[in-house]
Amino acid sequence: MKKFTEFIEEHLAGPMAKLANQRHLRAIRDGIIATLPLIIIGSFFLIIAFPPLPADWGVTQFLTSNAATILLPYRMTMYIMTLYATFGIGASLSKTYNLDVISGGILATIAFLLTFVPVNIPAEALDAAGTAGFVLPMANLGGGGMFVGIITSILAVEIYRLTDKSKFKITMPEQVPPAVARSFETLTPTLIVILGISTLTYFIGFDWHSTISKIVSPLVSAADSLPSVLLLIFMITFFWSFGIHGVSIVGSLARPLWLQLLDGNTAAMAAGKELPNIAAEPFYQWFIWIGGSGCTIGLALLLAFKTKSQFASKLGKATLAPAIFNINEPLIFGTPIVLNPILIIPFILTPMVTATIAWFATQLGLVNRVIFTAPWTLPGPIGAYLATGGDWRAAVLNVLLIIISVVIYYPFVMIYDNNELEKEHAIAK
């Protein structure tokens, strides 16, 4: 074990830490995370439009009859989340290059929008379509266009960086106000971005969205499978076991896939269709990471109520409240789980067991599929209930998985507690 630990620290910890801080991955992560308020609030309107109430209630009939209007905030937020994410990605990446943040965000946004071909609806179709003139197709402004948005955002900022680094830009005298000077400095990269992407989209006829969709569709499909879920869980908990923030590394790579899965569910929900996907990010939050990475809610409960050593008992009582709200860094580094050969085993095993149970329960229709990104600090049963659109069975499943977490952690916590007791007795002597 010692040699294996040394190997991990020497050959894996460094490269993984660098990967987690790689500027492009960090920009993608930060840009997407910046849209979370819009995703959370926007998707909440789905629940309002399709309330988890009996269909014959007056309030239910009122809400469903006005669903099209109620869903408009959702369509202007979560439904087009990639439009907002591109600005965040561009701004974040520009910041790492010491470029103007706002200019980078705007360049990234226009680069993404130039991948769309506006549709011209003739005036004679006004009665049928409800509008006329040029309209922008919205479908790929959401999760379906996330990978295109990532690519074009990075491309736009890299062009901005190259023009700035090579001094291929318009430089104004020092007397010119900074805001005006920045506007002129970005004229060159703006011209290159607009001409370049416009040429590809409108004159060469390159279909960004269908091409990228064909490339990533196998990844999206695979991400919804149980083997993929288990692999991601193993990677995240494995890195955490050695003190490396697994969610930062794996989540940066997987989050665009998770968003596409969630977007597919919310779009289907809004259209009144069957939900297609299981393993969107809320599935991980409410059925796998209960109490935090490693499903450590069971560990916190056992430490607080079943241990006899003073250290374990006090640690459990101190960390139980944060664990209920899915904050478990005090547990991970306090017990510690990191480099602990006893607790690493249930830390990796427990979420894989809960994921398997939850995946089959969802696949068999025993629990609704997730449609809502509930705030991650909610207690598990409440978050599971909201994330599935008000399915009480999801709350029951969450409680069941907490019990299973306690059962799996139990023998390992008893070994851990006995070791702590021996240390305390030795000190007392």
TrEMBL record:
UniProt keywords, alphabetically? Cell membrane, Membrane, Sugar transport, Transmembrane, Transmembrane helix, Transport
Give the primary localization class.
membrane
Positions of the PTS EIIC type-3 domain = 8-412
- Tell me how this protein sits in the membrane: Multi-pass membrane protein
From which organism does this entry originate? Enterococcus moraviensis ATCC BAA-383
**Which GO cellular component terms are attached?**
plasma membrane
Q: What does this protein do?
A: The phosphoenolpyruvate-dependent sugar phosphotransferase system (PTS), a major carbohydrate active -transport system, catalyzes the phosphorylation of incoming sugar substrates concomitant with their translocation across the cell membrane.
Q: Does the keyword section mention Transferase?
A: no
Instruction: Spell out the molecular function terms from Gene Ontology.
Output: protein-N(PI)-phosphohistidine-sugar phosphotransferase activity
- Write out the GO biological process terms: carbohydrate derivative transport; phosphoenolpyruvate-dependent sugar phosphotransferase system
Q: What is this protein called?
A: Permease IIC component
Entry's localization field: Cell membrane
Q: Which Pfam families match?
A: PTS_EIIC
Show the stretches that span the lipid bilayer. Answer: 31-50, 70-89, 101-121, 141-160, 229-254, 283-305, 337-360, 366-387, 394-412
Alphabetized InterPro entries for the sequence: PTS_EIIC, PTS_EIIC_3, PTS_IIC_cello, PTS_Sugar-EIIC/EIIB
Would the keyword DNA-binding turn up in this protein's UniProt record? no
